[in-house]
Amino acid sequence: MGDRGGPYTLGQLAQALGAVLEGDSELVIRGVAPLETAGPDQLSFVTHPKSLPLAASSRAGALLVGAEVKDLRAPLLRAASPQTALIALLKLFHPAPPFSAGIHPSALVASDSRIHPNASVGAFAVIQPRAVVGPRARIFPMVYVGEGVEIGEESTVYANVVIREGVRIGRRVIIHAGAVLGSDGFGYAFDGSAHQKIPQVGGVVIEDDVEIGANVTIDRATLGDTVVRRGTKIDNLVQVAHNVEIGQHAIVVAQSGISGSCRVGTGAVLGGQVGIADHVTIGDGVMLGAQSGVPGDIRAAGQYLGTPARPVAEARRIYAAMPRLPDLLKKVRALERRVRELEARLGIESTGSGEADAD
Amino acid sequence: MGDRGGPYTLGQLAQALGAVLEGDSELVIRGVAPLETAGPDQLSFVTHPKSLPLAASSRAGALLVGAEVKDLRAPLLRAASPQTALIALLKLFHPAPPFSAGIHPSALVASDSRIHPNASVGAFAVIQPRAVVGPRARIFPMVYVGEGVEIGEESTVYANVVIREGVRIGRRVIIHAGAVLGSDGFGYAFDGSAHQKIPQVGGVVIEDDVEIGANVTIDRATLGDTVVRRGTKIDNLVQVAHNVEIGQHAIVVAQSGISGSCRVGTGAVLGGQVGIADHVTIGDGVMLGAQSGVPGDIRAAGQYLGTPARPVAEARRIYAAMPRLPDLLKKVRALERRVRELEARLGIESTGSGEADAD
Amino acid sequence: MGDRGGPYTLGQLAQALGAVLEGDSELVIRGVAPLETAGPDQLSFVTHPKSLPLAASSRAGALLVGAEVKDLRAPLLRAASPQTALIALLKLFHPAPPFSAGIHPSALVASDSRIHPNASVGAFAVIQPRAVVGPRARIFPMVYVGEGVEIGEESTVYANVVIREGVRIGRRVIIHAGAVLGSDGFGYAFDGSAHQKIPQVGGVVIEDDVEIGANVTIDRATLGDTVVRRGTKIDNLVQVAHNVEIGQHAIVVAQSGISGSCRVGTGAVLGGQVGIADHVTIGDGVMLGAQSGVPGDIRAAGQYLGTPARPVAEARRIYAAMPRLPDLLKKVRALERRVRELEARLGIESTGSGEADAD
Predict the structure, then answer these.
(1) CB–CB contact C124 A140 (8 Å)
(2) What is the mean pLDDT of residues B303-329?
(3) What's the rounded mean pLDDT across residues B202-207?
(4) Looking at beta carbons, which pairs linking C80-84 to residues 24 or more positions away fall under 8 Å?
(5) Domain count, chain A
(6) Which of B62, B227, C241, C337 is the most exposed, fewest CB within 10 Å of its CB?
(7) Is the bond leading into A326 cis (omega within 30 degrees of zero)?
């Protein structure tokens, strides 16, 4: 979208970010750009050590770096936390678009819903009876807000999101386009001839400061609530089944699936495409590597990987050993032959290849 | 959404469910709740043996249980099938919202479509020419119904579903929000310089009593039809590719993917995140564990697991053995050394570590 | 949808396709159908050797085949590339529906957007300020086109697609229903107590002739652009994270996930449900089998499979060896016992089971 804030001098930026300036305070900076493409009037940044080689060759007019970075010739802004400073920097150059409150005339808003006068409701949005939309909440076009839904202040709901009846959404929540909240949980009882649908009459609760990615699905509980606690961030195309509870400040990367009635702890991290079986507990601080499959509880904080998920060091040892398995089969066959030969020399009767030793 | 039906006495409930009452028939029950949260005026339920400890400590006013459950102090409703009784119970306390027929004035309905007068079409829905919507079918707001689509009686299509041209949907089908039916199959022919699109001119047929989860995608066939047969239930974010046929009463759990031209048998069960390669046949009654990958046909009923999917007992033995692989490599190396030493003692020339034995 | 073009005689079809006719040029063909269902007035086709048995028993009036096919009794149309000829054939019998330009009166189109007079905009579509829609582009109902979006000529955007601000889309691009382009990348900095959102202020660029499946998600870059290059085809439910660049003419099968800042090379093929870790480079011509997991760069063209992905021959050897692992454990245990016995006979002191040999 191009830069909309600025320009600023390096000195102004150092002050705004609380960073230490090493270089010309009058240098004019017109934008932020990646190391590869930044030009002499742009600032770039080093938030990861592996970016250092790129930083050395970058044409950026100046660099935002941490305390430990050395030997760069460009003017520097040194910040205690370059990542946090980067956030402030991006907001300076890309201020949020102005918010204009009001209900678009094409939106269909039930007369007994309560839309705060400072909220915004976009074109063709549908707000059903008894829904509540808080101050400075922003409902984009074509959003469906079901009966009795609550959306807290300063929350943003992007286009084409569907929020079914009774779902409760906290403050400063962001829901990306196409997400579906409150669809029926997947529950049936087989009666001998057909799957009978178990009514899914519970709800969904999304606490404050949660972010929910595009085309995510979060099912309502059978009874009670499916809950996503404060500060948790969910990436695109994630499935959260009925009666799941995800703790605070968790991270769920794209395309992961959390089955019914799981508990995911505070600060847990699920890499991409992780799958968790139903009724499983994932403890606080558990980190599951991408594509992990979790058939049972993992309670101790730490890193896990693989299917079934194991402590990461163990999983890596297995991964490293697997390519040697075909050769190992040959080696063992050769050993068996050689041992038989030795036994023959010594007049020992061979006991075969382990059958007698089966467990 | 809170309870809307009731209250009922235990005696009334026993009669309505055909259950045997063990306790005070005059006890008033105001709702159904999980064992953990149910209070003295609520009924809870035991549909799985592992809930028994929770049941013993539940504050629920009464419990719905099966024949085999013993030693609970709460008043009991004993049902031959507690799961089926639970369905009836939930419907008593949570009756379906009243259905109001009619076409919302904001909906765009083609003049040559046929909407049954008892059907309902929500705000901003688009019904294209020659579409047919049956009696008591419910089309939520912002649904797109393409040209010539047929939707059978009592089917429900939630908000923001897209049903492209020519798709045929049976009776009592439920399609959750954001699902897409009839998108083009993924077919190209590489002409040496680019992928040429193969026109996808077939259709999609969804038979009676199918349920389709939120944000599911079901592609139209190249020619002929992609088919989901009667009674099958599909969870959220599942991909069904062109020309797939899923048999009756199958279960497809979230995020599974079924590639082009697969056949999935009657009563088959696909766990979450299962992937099936194209042109594969999955037999009747085959159950695939979560995250299984299926490169070829599996015809015999039974449980399978893993990538490539194997009979579950075999897969579990492999999973259990895998952590011992790194140690096994060391053991075999030690054995080779020891056998060389033995051979040296006996004057046998070593034949190395298996190379001579390669297959 | 039934056939809409034709009928044609076999002679007419041979001429239109540039195929050699072996049979009656006056035979009337009314449609194209799969081998299993084609009748005597329909043409079917053999584009894969494994279809030959079906072809022999097909009731099709005639068959489209390649040069190498023999011993079929039906009249034949022989084409140098049967797949390319099939595309032409399908277009003859299923011509694209007529395109009618114009903006539906219910669409909401910003006055300072530029919609080409030959473009089409469907009902309830929302076109935000400064968006540009090229000639013969087709915007289906309920599409959201954000501020400053560009959509090139002859592109098709199906219903309920969301294209957020600033996304640039080339010519002849097809975007299937429910896809979301330009949602925020998934980036946070943990400040010790909460995940702070890193503003995602970059864009998305989709080049010419790209096809994007239903419910796909493509995130905008943090800075710079997420890019999908010319001719690449993306299947349903794929996740493309921020700052990814996918090269030309790549194929990404359903439910694959490409993490942030990945580079995917020209002509690369990702099978279904593949996952690629962030900042990974996939070289030109790399083909990843379904469900592969890629933790690090793969630069050499060729086929790879598994998690972690390995050259396909190696992965297959591992898969084949895995079922023998449980038995191998037993065999090695037996060998250890036998070697101990041999050592005892020769008066050698056993060195145990490999501990002394650990690496």
Answers:
(1) no
(2) 96
(3) 98
(4) C80/C18, C81/B189, C81/B191, C82/C45, C82/C46, C82/C47, C83/B189, C83/B198, C83/C47, C84/B189, C84/B191, C84/B196
(5) 3
(6) C337
(7) no
Q: Residue C7 and residue C123: Cα distance in Å, rounded? A: 34
Q: Are B289 and B304 in contact (CB under 8 A)?
A: yes
Q: Say if residue C337 is in the same domain as residue C280.
A: no
Inter-residue contact B64 to B40 (CB < 8 Å): no
Domain of residue A45: give its range. 8-93
Q: Residue C100 pLDDT > 70, yes or no?
A: yes
A152 shares a domain with A275: yes
The phi, psi pair for C301, rounded to 5°, reads -55, 150
Task: Specify if C319 maps to a domain.
Answer: no
Asked, for residue A1, whether it belongs to a domain, the answer is no
| Residues B112, B57 within the same domain | no
Question: What confidence tier does C40 reach under pLDDT thresholds 50, 70, 90?
Answer: very high
DSSP strand pairing (C162-163 vs A286-288): unpaired
Q: Are residues C173 and C231 in the same domain?
A: yes
Of chain B, the percentage scoring pLDDT greater than 70 comes to: 97
CA–CA dist B164, C177 (Å, integer): 9
Q: Do B186 and C273 touch (CB under 8 A)?
A: no
A338 to chain B: nearest residue by CA?
B339
| Helical spans, DSSP H, in chain C | 10-17, 52-57, 82-93, 312-321, 325-345
Statement to judge: residues B53 and B192 lie in one domain: no
Residue among B114, B136, B117, B139 nearest B126 (CA): B139
Select the residue of A178, A291, A346 nearest C178 (Cβ to Cβ). Answer: A178
Residues C76 and C161 in one domain: no
Global pTM?
Answer: 0.95
- For the question of residue C48 being annotated catalytic, the response is no
Q: Is residue B359 part of a domain?
A: no
Structure tokens at B269: 């069960």
The size of chain C, in residues, is 359
Distance from CA of C192 to the nearest CA of B (A): 33
Sign, CA torsion B37/B41/B46/B51: positive
Q: How far is B331 from chain C (nearest CA, A)?
A: 5
